[in-house]
């Protein structure tokens, strides 16, 4: 059943494809009958023979009928046109047989119509029609046999022999069967190949659509990707749009969602956010939204102003959507936005995205949600950072940092009991760069581990000289970045280096800040315990600056507590701050920790500090950081 349906589809497709061919065939046949009619009037000009008016008018009439069918195009069904052609041919054959017997073109006409059957009609119908037509000479033979039809002697004795007419019928039947078999086989293969070609073309088109989808759309969010976004923008520009705005949106907190619920859930969130953004732009044909991959989306906005966009950003809240509620996500969705004005700030898409990314870097530093418009000085800052990064890499490789030392003083006897090592850098082209500027660049550039090793090794090389200057009991503090502190085999590296350079671990203090990762608390505890076992002291730096200090003190045994400068700035004028300081000192004493006050700069601060149990200070009042060597 399926095969029959398949063949029917083949035939239906073939019939549709042969309709134009038949129209052209009708036109050519009409022209040939005009030519035949002209041949019939040649005796008029040559004065030889007689004009055959019967065939003249027959040829002209048939030519006219065929031409009418041609100009009527598809107004006449295909089957009617085919049968009109068949009827015309049969009429000519019968007329030829009656007029000229076997000497005329009747047999050729029948062979022609048989071929036409097999080309334009379905297989069974064409075979039945061909066999029916093939018995036409046999009918003439029967008429001759019954003496109902006699041909003149000048046409030859063969015309009056029934056997000759029967033989012509048999010949046409054999011709019908053989030609039909051959044509049907060829036509079947042709139709099948055509269908396969069409199916292949369809598959290629579908594949092309799929490839276009991959090439032009983000596979996760199904939003236009960067490539299609650029094409759409160029179309807008070429259509005459002169001014517009581009916005880059970065979703905050996606890493937290991935950590809590898995990357698959995070992908679902991005998909839902994309649908919300798409809904937001559906009624705004002047707005285009696309995905740049990850958690970033880009907008093209026309017919607006900075003020309108800023108001829309303030009002727009992803959490208002029922699907994206904080209760369902376990996290409130927030976003950062940077913007640029086109073509005032940038014209090409590469330049636009680069400057939007620069604005986004600034937006990440903002504490509240608002759009950050790109400004030229931002680009200068990025260029400066890039140059500093290159210089930093070279400085770290060449170990060209200088080390400044700031004294820790016991205020009870004004003796220096320790030193803190502080990195200093004089950059080519820029001069002295503060740690507040170059440390974040080192961290972002993933140079923190080689930088940490560079500073550590340089300080270790100075310790023998520092012991000569300040005494054998002096302790030198080194700030250790959380990333370096959690670096694999950190302890082994430290202890081997100290052993190789014959430095006593008891002369060393590592200061770590509370921004080490809370989820690594067990690893930190293990590292600190091993360091202290080997004689290295560990200090909790910047106590009170963040929110997790007490948690670290609860889990980890430190030797020293350094109170952040922010607790000490106002102790001379604020009783509240002094009480906080006093409480911290009592807490440290109860845990057996030595307390150090950072940033003491005035006598008033010192007088207040003396009223507490903290007797070790570090600050400009006693000592500024000094480069002692190199």
UniProtKB/TrEMBL annotation:
Keywords: Membrane, Transmembrane, Transmembrane helix. The chain crosses the membrane at residues 21-45, 51-71, 78-96, 127-145, 165-183. PROSITE patterns: EAL, GGDEF. Pfam families: EAL, GGDEF. Residues 242-376 form the GGDEF domain. It comes from the Bacteria. Gene3D superfamilies: 3.30.70.270, EAL domain (3.20.20.450). One of its GO terms (molecular function) is cyclic-guanylate-specific phosphodiesterase activity. Residues 385-630 form the EAL domain. This is Bifunctional diguanylate cyclase/phosphodiesterase. The lineage of its organism: Bacteria, Pseudomonadati, Spirochaetota, Spirochaetia, Leptospirales.
